[in-house]
């Protein structure tokens, strides 16, 4: 695969993730009743959900901006790790969360080849 194709696929994944995290983050910030109901079911109050929404949006902005993209990717990966741990703790399905985590990884490695090289251990 050429470098241009790789970057294009990376950006397509970034756009998909931006739509996903942008939507879920804004729904938490605006205290959407369905989201608040779902988070309350696992012990997260509306104020905490709003803070989580802000964290999602901030991490997303960092991920989309090329200069801070790696930091944003790492923050989104950490966030999704917390989501997966919470789902595990509450015996909820995790497949979608793991899929989103994988999309973040793949998108980040395609957009930032240096990240992939670091993971491989190349100097």
From TrEMBL:
Coiled-coil boundaries: none
Entry's transmembrane regions: 9-27, 47-65, 70-88, 94-112
Compartment(s): Membrane
Annotated Pfam families: DoxX_2
Keywords for this protein: Membrane, Transmembrane, Transmembrane helix
One CC-aspect GO term: membrane
UniProt key word Ubl conjugation: no
Domain of life: Bacteria
Membrane topology classification: Multi-pass membrane protein
Name of protein: DoxX-like protein
Organism: Dinghuibacter silviterrae
